[in-house]
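Components:
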Amino acid sequence: MANQNNSTGTPRVKQGMAEMLKGGVIMDVIDADQARIAEDAGAVAVMALERVPADIRKDGGVARMSDPDMIDEIIAAVSIPVMAKARIGHITEAQVLQSIGVDYIDESEVLTPADESHHIDKWQFTVPFVCGATNLGEALRRINEGAAMIRSKGEAGTGNVVEAVRHMRTIRGDIARLKGMDKEELFTAAKELQAPYDLVAQVAQLGKLPVVLFTAGGIATPADAALMMQLGADGVFVGSGIFKSGDPAQRAKAIVDATTNFDDPAVIARVSRGLGEAMVGINIDTLPASERFAGRGW
Amino acid sequence: MLRVGVLAVQGDVREHINSLTSLNVAVQKVRNPEELKTINALVIPGGESTTISMLTKRVGLMDPLRKFVKDGFAVYGSCAGMIMLADEILDGRNDQETIGGLEITVRRNAFGRQVDSFETDLAVKDFDKSFRAIFIRAPWVERVGESVEVLAAVTTENGSQHPVMVRQGSVLATAFHPELTNDNRVHEYFVQMAKSVSAAN
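Structure:
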């Protein structure tokens, strides 16, 4: 653009992109065919990754950023935004993803962390970032590092919504508690949340996060997606739940419809019929601590 | 009395509702044909245009909205909303349907991918000061029909000019997102437009 007044990568441009995804479903895909199925179903964006979380769990080993060729193929296959995951703290993976032209980077606990004490300084990037959080303090630390969108972590790859519910309720509960606090109390709240005072005060005033809040981790059915919307999510990430099920195209469409009509049980009942097998879930209690993704990130 | 609906199948519905509410007009969401009957002006928000198009069809609003536009009610679309109002789309999905009614051809994601998204000071016809316009994976207008008035345009690096705010009768569209700013002048313009249209009806 010739105009010197133009600025790219501003907070409004980054956070605004997430506003455009609200009320929508973002689907994990591993190739161009899956990306097309997601777009046909009405996904607002796709997340390009090499293995869905359920397979990362099964296969073990180190999970990394996807092959740039594979991301390119997905970008070429669809017209909706394409996101991709970088490992927590892996600055270079993020730089690579930005140079390929992905529309959003997920600094994700689903991949094996590259740094056990630092997250990426996301202010240094033009491309916006989404990060996971299990509570308000974690969400605000990510926002302070430059995240333009937050998703509750849940427990990815389990098909079990219980952790997503826990994290969404925790974040919303933490926000509710800030409302009505006076300044002295907010200083103490900031200390307890281990988050910057200015962000804590802003959340208290807004009654919500200053960025869009999606949900993720364990959503496997249309009813799961609608539940998370009723609990206050602005939109839904679905990982293994779609392409690990019996009829991905139909399930993808059903989850989109349930997200749009989350407060209409008749629609959710209709789209829940005849979907075939859902992914087989995992009970979180049987997962050893070392296999839980949600604890990654600091 | 003016009652503005915001199409609420996907996108930044809340931001448009906030902008309109601060102008003291009655606002409501429109999610089905029933809710369309109670309003006399409509805003189509920003969002993902392919998704909004599919969902508009699935909730049974595509044809009622075409009639709404044809009947001459005031309608405003931002970004994806502009695409939904365009008669023709370039770089869309082959099966992407629009409401239409605005005699323009828009190119989707014309400025590039998200890393190319930007904000800029935009000169808008009849606005005394420039408007800080936010473009997010935005479309631009490639062709306008004879009765379409261009209210703002951007110049690209190679010197070509592309309209980003247009009006044709009771239909207004912007490629940018005034609802993401505290500057209410575009919404004000639309509300004035809607009031004069509903007076004429």
